[in-house]
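Hey everyone, long-time lurker, first post.

I ran two proteins through the pipeline my lab uses and got sequence/structure pairs for each. Pasting them in order. The first:
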Amino acid sequence: PFDPARILATLERNQVVYLVIGGLAAVLYGSPLPTYDLDIVPGRGRKNRGALLTALAALDALALPDELEEGEPLSAEQALVDERDTSFYTPHGYVDVVFHPAGFRGYGALAGNAELLEAAHDLPVRVAALRDVIRSKEALGRERDLVQLPALHTLLELA
């Protein structure tokens, strides 16, 4: 079962600097379309990498192998050090750590427009601006992202 509040609370408790992007960001802005994972863009730096690694360990996260690469599986620590976009499985749902979001150069390019939104009762989180969520989904160009665009553009017009 997907429990984003538990994942986000763990990130917050460990003082990870990050932004929510992707489907959950869309949901937090009011999209009626479901999502089944959490996409985050972490801030850079050794201290934040350590905080994120601690949070992932607290979530019993397992790095999922990249289907496109062969060889030894990458450890969570190595993935974060290398700033590789990596998917993690946790008992509370999947977490995608995205250092290179489509259409942007990373955390710094999104942080200036980010908003603080209530993800759950007493759980405010920083979320990429709706306009940036749309831009990223357009840049990805995947069918599952493109079908969300009409609803997201409507939310943007209503804002």
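...and the second, right after it:
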Amino acid sequence: MREAALEKCKQSLVEIRDRLSGEVHRLIEAVPQKANGGGDLSHVPTHNADRDSEGLEGELEVIHNEESLLEEVRAALIRCDEGTYGECQECGDEVSAARLEALPYTPYCIQCAQKVEAAR
């Protein structure tokens, strides 16, 4: 990967990392407020435990997903520093520029990504 392209990708990764870090922090800060309940806008009777657990579970899942994505971005930044960014972590082939543009944090070429997903 050319130096200019690598720097562009790295800058994109830093921006994504910073945005995700802020979002994760904001979501974590909001959890205690959601857990304590903030009042209903609806007059439909629901049990407080149902309402709180559904909302809280959804928030926790979003936090988990955002943290996982943040870890992928951090790993991609490490690959940039190590000189392995753009190489598939499975087969060693080059990850296409189009794929890196769409998913700058991806560790796999499209073929290996499909294999990894199928194995899950």
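Reply from user beta_strand_b:
Welcome! Quick read of the second one: The mean pLDDT is 86. The helical segments are 3-36, 48-82, 97-102, 110-119.
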